[in-house]
Amino acid sequence: xxxxxxxxxxxxxxVEDIPAGRVMTYGDVAxxxxxxxxxxxxxxxxxxxxxxxxxxxxxxxxxPATGHEARALEHFREEGTPLVDGAAGIRVDLAAARxxx
DNA sequence: ACGGTGACTAACC
DNA sequence: CGGTTAGCCACCG
Length: 101
Prior knowledge:
Blueprint: H1 6-16, E1 24-25, H2 26-32, H3 38-48, E2 57-58, H4 69-79, E3 83-86, E4 89-92, H5 94-97
Parallel strand pairs: 1-2
Antiparallel strand pairs: 3-4
Helix pairs in contact: 2-3
The structure holds a DNA duplex.
């Protein structure tokens, strides 16, 4: 019953380990599983993200996943995630919200 | 085995 | 700040 995909399983485990009010970048999650496939992490979220707090995973710029910014923003406000209001719109304050294991 | 693809990142102008 | 280019890695048919 092994799902067979170690990478995917590890990624989901890391995302679930992110506490509320904090976020991690795709690159950080990839590094946490011992890889640098930030893109592969994004794909994993697109397929399995419905079972994990995908909104706690953001891009290196502090913006949430492309096409899901509005949805992530609702969760950020709800969990009290540090946000920054800038010209590019609203984004997560990585300096304060980035989760460092 | 191979090429295309993507909820990405960093560098450059 | 923003738009573009190239590099990166894992999954799918």
